[in-house]
């Protein structure tokens, strides 16, 4: 594992803060103009998830509020920590494509309201078997389901009742 010097950490923190400021300003401007959001893609590496959790939650909420169609959320962390997705993401009824990487979906949400979801891609996501079944049963329009780099499932079973002609 690589250890950063104090100078390197300081420089990286400044870059992170600049990036956060840019995303904040861009999303707020987008919302003020009342544009409908087609796609929100975020990919970032973090030393510590806790330092930016409030920003990530706000960005997801702004995207969901602006009726985002495609949500691509990739958070890379060092070590075992994962970003816990906020409950607001489960009410994103206009999302047609959801791609998540490096997040935690282990805690169960009461309901999932992805009424328009057609493509679900989960990569390096900690997710419980109950949540996988919830996605499958409560998202009837899903056509593409991609699950990759899951290490904690012994077996995952589900059936498909609808076939394409």
TrEMBL record:
InterPro entries xref list: At1g61320/At1g61330-like (IPR053772), LRR_dom_sf (IPR032675), LRR_FXL15/At3g58940/PEG3-like (IPR055411)
Originating organism: Dipteronia dyeriana
Domain F-box/LRR-repeat protein 15/At3g58940/PEG3-like LRR: 56-160
Regions annotated as coiled coil: none
Gene3D superfamilies reported for this sequence: Ribonuclease Inhibitor (3.80.10.10)
Superkingdom: Eukaryota
Protein name: F-box/LRR-repeat protein 15/At3g58940/PEG3-like LRR domain-containing protein
Record Pfam families: LRR_At5g56370 (PF24758)
